[in-house]
């Protein structure tokens, strides 16, 4: 089994090396065969491991020693349990589908091999991240997926917007990592190890320890650790206020928007917090922070999605909002619900993105939905799969998203820590908004009149099988993944992996009412979320299919509100003025004044000038005239004589 | 452990002898001979240094491979050599970098080839001498001698403003070292006639003279490192120096300063070190933050990397004066790693400079379209410079941050800003130079790297990745020595 563990990350790594270093020699076809084959190996191995874990086996051991410092060993190792195995299957499955899809999407791109190399490298990094048994390797994977994300957003490196977006993504992520690394440093300082198992075992022992960051204001160490770690999660999982990079990341090719910026990488933060549940449970302050941040992200990002016209941006903001749901679940101590939503979201969001990509291919790389419309008769498979994903995303009973989202909403309802009320309002209101923007996308793209130019219209056709096959394969779990909510969320699937304190028992209370998926669906019909989502779908249908003139009127009436949403609350402008502009101005000031004027100008060259000046002064006495020297000697003799006589 | 065979002498004198032999090949009609001779000499220089690693005993903190002969009997000056876990990796780094420099200048340097190659070989030997000397006078001779080749390299093969830069470099460093000489003479008096550095370590000195000694050494070493605010010679020197000069300067010469702190300041004046640690930490943190911001605004690639060197060396001095195992070992790892990464960064800029004769970021743009292989290497080194895990650049920074948080959370907080600034200035430069559409006809005409350049960058790339993925061997060799040093420092001399 241990060799199989190694195979899971190493197979895609080998694929990445083959396609990356030797892609030029073996050509496009063999590059995609090699990488797809090796990711398939990884998927099979992941499934075997998953089966093994279901039988109750788990593993925690090291591969090699990275570093020894004093008494502390830093190791690279694997922790294989239910959480890891679930993530492994999700990651390798979505990754494989995206690999296959890429054949169709990127077929005439000059960077074909490079693309395959990157996505395989991503799969390797993500596997290292989820399989880690310690904080250090987690950080390795964490930064490595950030690197690949950077490379892939800037994949089309001649586009100014792409290379702006990738730099922005990397730097914003680095702000998160800054907090994350400090959190890791505090963990190491207080526990003397970075190994999950020993840290979690010792965690209850430090609940009362305090640290004074500002003299006279003691903080609980555990709260500080959790909040710093969560800052890392905010960067990677794009939570407000570090969310700004994710919408821009849509500059990358669509397959990676699906794989990295929707299904897997952005969920790393959620995964990490769930993994650290034994720490986060100990700090109510941290949980409240998470709830509030998650609530803000959920609602406010969903609102932005309503006014976007770029099909990928709608899905991107939807991702932000859905990540907000997961974060809220974490804050409510419903870790299992968060992971469950992570899983269902991975499937339905991958379908939405890959479907959007399929539309974009058909539209000759036009992404503006205002120029689409009526595509359903031309692209039935894309339409059907995306429709299913939209239903799942809107939380229509029976589809996967319904179960996971309903569990989150109800869990927040039951939660009793501060901030739960606010978060409950946010997640509830967002149900309506989600249904609205998702079906707005469906109606604008697939229904109504065709609005594209004649040339595009004449060439409209369904995408090739390499594109539709992944859609169909992923549509299956988009429907069905939710049916396993019983064992996964309410059952004992995550026992011994996720720890919840007795006083944070929202999910337990919820589980007590759970009577099976049928009962859950029946019950939902009498609750607010269901009617909110029906209302959302109906509104979308009315505004974007029946009375298509109304949205423009609303836009004209509420110009201020529209602008606020369209410009994403002006946060980008604020950041680029405050942080980017601020550090550039500070850098220039320090350079021009600090270095050039003061240090070099005053001290260094000033010292040289003093030497030169005094030399010039002293030089005056060396005139070269004998009578000057003779006169000086006489004066000197007088002075000496005078002094001597007295 | 004493070796019959004078290994250290060989490591010092072999490159110098080869360097002199290269000089004798004379004018440029023999350029090819000079190049090959230099290459053979530098590779031999590296090969003879390998036994230093393979026969090194990691279990002892004592000096190894010791050689001790009388030099001037009257003043008790000895030819006394030896290495421990602090100096040994630095010697290896130096011997590793020298062949790369020879290859880097292979086709680029067309005038006075023998002198150029010879100067680097001689310098390599001299620097080994600095790291291996256990006698203060021997150390001082090597220390000052190392200035001369560098002064000539900048002054002869440098850019348009080379004379200003060379003199600034020379005066800055010379002034620093004069105070060190005074401190050494004081120590000679106090120790009643010994120039043995190991004797100085044991010398009991009251706090006030310790502080004076510390400050005298500080000036010498701070200029070399360079620490804020005596760093302004470095950007000028780098900008004017030829590529090879920049590589040696960043990869090797800066480390002399760092080494000095560990060999002199900390063990000779431990109480002063503790007393002044806060000041040293403050200066180091200023280097990290202030210089990081300045680096962001540089329009000249070499200046940018030079400033980034200052910021990275800030981590080194920070690590030293946190005065715990993580800090000092992290600082050592950072020194070694910075040797590879800054060397590689300067080589990358050199590759571009050789083609377009410009170091201005604004003159480039879209280089990746014409030089994809180069862009890939540059990406790796840029990421290493930004401290990405998996590269050696991460290891030292990680260790120092882990160490800082133990001392004071805010130290770690400020140090960790390098995660953001380091990425910002490096990747912003990378974006403007490499990414984008082809910016000018000059860029359009660029040729991708030659086999020679590929080999150079590949060797460094493998090294950077290797130590990023498996840094354990690095700390293994220095661990005992650092432990012993810390025990010594924590034992008051008062």
TrEMBL record, chain A:
Pfam families: Proton_antipo_M, Proton_antipo_N. This is NADH dehydrogenase subunit L. One of its GO terms (molecular function) is NADH dehydrogenase (ubiquinone) activity. Keywords: Membrane, Transmembrane, Transmembrane helix. InterPro entries: NADHpl_OxRdtase_5_subgr, ND/Mrp_TM, NU5C-like, Proton_antipo_N. Its main location: membrane. The chain crosses the membrane at residues 6-27, 34-54, 83-103, 115-132, 138-157, 178-197, 217-235, 256-274, 286-307, 314-340, 346-363, 383-402, 422-443, 464-485, 528-546, 626-645. Residues 66-116 form the NADH-Ubiquinone oxidoreductase (complex I) chain 5 N-terminal domain. Signal peptide: none annotated. It is a multi-pass membrane protein. It is found in: Endomembrane system; Membrane. It comes from the Bacteria. Residues 132-416 form the NADH:quinone oxidoreductase/Mrp antiporter transmembrane domain. GO terms for biological process: ATP synthesis coupled electron transport; electron transport coupled proton transport. GO terms for cellular component: endomembrane system; membrane.
UniProtKB/TrEMBL annotation, chain B:
GO terms for molecular function: NADH dehydrogenase (ubiquinone) activity; NADH dehydrogenase activity; ubiquinone binding. The chain crosses the membrane at residues 6-24, 36-54, 86-106, 113-131, 137-157, 169-188, 203-223, 244-262, 274-297, 304-323, 335-353, 374-396, 408-428, 454-472. Pfam families: Oxidored_q5_N, Proton_antipo_M. Residues 134-418 form the NADH:quinone oxidoreductase/Mrp antiporter transmembrane domain. Its main location: membrane. Keywords: Membrane, NAD, Translocase, Transmembrane, Transmembrane helix. Belongs to the complex I subunit 4 family. It is found in: Endomembrane system; Membrane. One of its GO terms (biological process) is ATP synthesis coupled electron transport. The keyword Transmembrane helix applies. It comes from Nitrosomonas oligotropha. This is NADH dehydrogenase subunit M.
């Amino acid at each position: 089994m241990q060799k199989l563990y190694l195979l899971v990350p190493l197979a895609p790594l080998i694929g990445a090396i083959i396609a990356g270093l030797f892609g030029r020699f073996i050509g496009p076809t063999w590059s995609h065969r090699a990488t797809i084959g090796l990711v398939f190996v990884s998927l099979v191995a992941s499934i075997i491991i998953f089966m093994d874990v279901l039988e109750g086996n788990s593993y925690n051991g090291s591969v090699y020693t990275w570093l020894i410092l004093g008494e502390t060993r830093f190791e690279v190792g694997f922790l294989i349990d239910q959480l890891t195995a679930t993530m492994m299957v999700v990651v390798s499955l979505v990754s494989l589908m995206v690999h296959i899809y890429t054949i169709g999407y990127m077929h005439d791109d000059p960077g074909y091999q490079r693309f395959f190399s990157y996505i395989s490298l991503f799969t390797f990094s993500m596997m290292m991240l989820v399989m880690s048994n310690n904080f250090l390797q987690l950080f390795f994977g964490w930064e490595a997926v950030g690197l690949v994300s950077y490379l892939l957003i800037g994949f089309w490196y001649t586009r100014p917007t792409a290379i702006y977006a990738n730099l922005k993504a990397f730097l914003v992520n680095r702000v998160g990592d800054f907090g994350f690394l400090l959190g890791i440093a505090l963990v190491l300082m207080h526990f003397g190890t970075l190994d999950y198992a020993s840290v979690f075992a010792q965690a209850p022992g430090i609940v009362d320890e305090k640290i004074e960051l500002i003299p006279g204001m003691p903080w609980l160490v555990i709260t500080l650790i959790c909040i710093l770690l969560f800052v890392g999660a905010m960067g990677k999982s794009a939570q407000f206020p570090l969310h700004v990079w994710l919408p821009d990341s849509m500059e990358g090719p669509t397959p990676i928007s699906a794989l990295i910026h929707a299904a897997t990488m952005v969920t790393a933060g959620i995964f990490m917090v769930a993994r650290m549940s034994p720490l986060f449970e100990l700090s109510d302050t941290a949980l409240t922070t998470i709830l509030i941040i998650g609530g803000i992200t959920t609602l406010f990002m969903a609102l932005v999605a309503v006014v976007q016209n770029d099909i990928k941006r709608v899905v991107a903001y939807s991702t932000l909002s859905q990540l907000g749901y997961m974060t809220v679940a974490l804050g409510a101590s419903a870790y299992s619900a968060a992971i469950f939503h992570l899983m269902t979201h991975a499937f339905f969001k991958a379908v939405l993105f890959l479907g959007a990509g399929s539309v974009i291919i058909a539209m000759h790389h036009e992404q503006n939905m205002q120029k689409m419309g009526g595509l359903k008769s031309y692209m039935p498979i894309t339409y059907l799969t995306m429709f299913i994903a939209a239903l799942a995303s809107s939380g229509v009973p029976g589809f996967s998203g319904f179960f996971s989202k309903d569990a989150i909403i109800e869990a927040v309802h039951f939660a009793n820590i501060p901030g739960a009320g606010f978060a409950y309002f946010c997640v509830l209101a967002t149900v309506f908004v989600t249904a609205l923007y998702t079906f707005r996308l469906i109606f604008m793209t697939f229904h109504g009149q065709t609005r594209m130019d004649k040339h595009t219209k004449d060439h409209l056709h369904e995408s090739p099988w390499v594109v539709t096959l992944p859609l169909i394969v992923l549509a299956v779990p988009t429907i069905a993944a939710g049916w396993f909510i019983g064992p996964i969320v309410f059952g004992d699937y995550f026992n011994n992996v996720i720890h919840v304190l007795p006083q944070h028992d929202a999910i337990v209370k919820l589980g007590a009412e759970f009577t099976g998926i049928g009962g859950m669906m029946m019950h939902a019909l009498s609750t607010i979320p269901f009617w909110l989502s029906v209302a959302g779908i109906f509104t979308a249908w009315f505004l974007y299919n029946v009375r298509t003139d109304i949205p423009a009127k609303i836009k004209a009436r509420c110009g201020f509100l529209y602008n606020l949403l369209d410009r994403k609350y002006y946060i980008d402008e604020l950041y680029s003025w405050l942080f980017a502009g601020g550090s550039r101005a500070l850098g220039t000031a320090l350079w021009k004044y600090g270095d050039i004027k003061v240090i070099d100008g005053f001290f260094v060259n000033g010292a040289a000038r003093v030497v030169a000046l005094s030399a010039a002064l002293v030089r005056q006495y060396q005139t070269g005239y004998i009578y000057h020297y003779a006169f000086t000697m006489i004066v000197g003799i007088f002075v000496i004589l005078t002094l001597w006589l007295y | 452990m004493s070796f019959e065979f004078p290994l250290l002498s060989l490591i010092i004198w072999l490159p110098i002898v080869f360097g002199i032999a290269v000089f004798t090949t004379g004018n440029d009609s023999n350029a090819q001979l000079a190049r090959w001779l230099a290459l053979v000499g530098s590779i031999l220089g590296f090969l003879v240094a390998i036994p230093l690693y393979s026969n090194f005993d990691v279990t002892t903190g004592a000096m190894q491979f010791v050689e001790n002969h009388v030099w001037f009997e009257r003043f008790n000056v000895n030819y006394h050599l030896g290495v421990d876990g602090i100096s040994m990796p630095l010697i290896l780094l130096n011997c590793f970098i020298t062949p790369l420099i020879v290859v880097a200048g292979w086709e680029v340097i067309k005038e006075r080839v023998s002198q150029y190659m010879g100067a680097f070989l001689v310098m390599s030997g001299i620097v080994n001498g600095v790291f291996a000397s256990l006698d203060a006078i021997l150390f001082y001779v090597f220390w000052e001698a190392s200035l001369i080749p560098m002064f000539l390299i900048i002054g002869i093969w440098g850019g348009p403003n080379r004379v200003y830069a060379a003199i600034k470099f020379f005066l800055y460093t010379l002034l620093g070292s004069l105070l060190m000489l005074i401190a050494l003479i004081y120590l000679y008096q106090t120790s009643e006639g010994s120039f043995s550095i190991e004797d100085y370590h044991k010398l009991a000195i009251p706090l006030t003279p310790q502080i004076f000694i510390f400050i005298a050494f500080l000036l010498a070493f701070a200029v070399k490192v360079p620490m804020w605010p005596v760093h302004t010679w470095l950007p000028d020197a780098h900008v004017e120096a030829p590529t090879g000069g920049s590589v040696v300067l960043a990869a090797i010469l800066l480390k002399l300063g760092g080494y000095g702190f560990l060999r002199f300041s900390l063990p000779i004046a431990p109480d002063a070190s503790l007393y002044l640690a806060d000041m040293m930490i403050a200066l180091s943190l200023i280097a990290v933050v202030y210089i990081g911001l300045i680096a962001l605004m540089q329009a000249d690639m070499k200046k940018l990397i030079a400033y980034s060197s200052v910021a990275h060396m800030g981590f080194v001095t920070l690590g030293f004066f946190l005065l715990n195992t993580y800090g000092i070992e992290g600082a050592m790892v950072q020194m070694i790693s910075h040797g590879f990464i800054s060397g590689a960064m300067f080589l990358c800029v050199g590759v571009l400079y050789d083609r377009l004769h410009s170091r201005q970021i604004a003159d480039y743009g879209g280089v990746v379209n014409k030089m994809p292989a180069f862009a890939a290497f540059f990406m790796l080194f840029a990421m290493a410079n930004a401290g990405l895990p998996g590269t050696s650049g991460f290891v030292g920074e990680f260790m120092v941050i882990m160490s800082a948080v133990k001392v004071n959370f805010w130290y770690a907080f400020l140090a960790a800003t390098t995660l953001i600034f380091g990425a910002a200035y490096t990747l912003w430069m990378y974006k403007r130079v490499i990414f984008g559409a082809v910016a000018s006809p000059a860029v359009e005409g660029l040729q991708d790297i030659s086999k020679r350049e590929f080999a150079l960058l590949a060797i460094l790339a493998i090294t950077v990745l290797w130590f990023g993925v498996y840094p354990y061997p690095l700390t293994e060799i220095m661990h005992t020595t650092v432990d012993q040093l810390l025990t010594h420092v924590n034992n008051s001399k008062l």
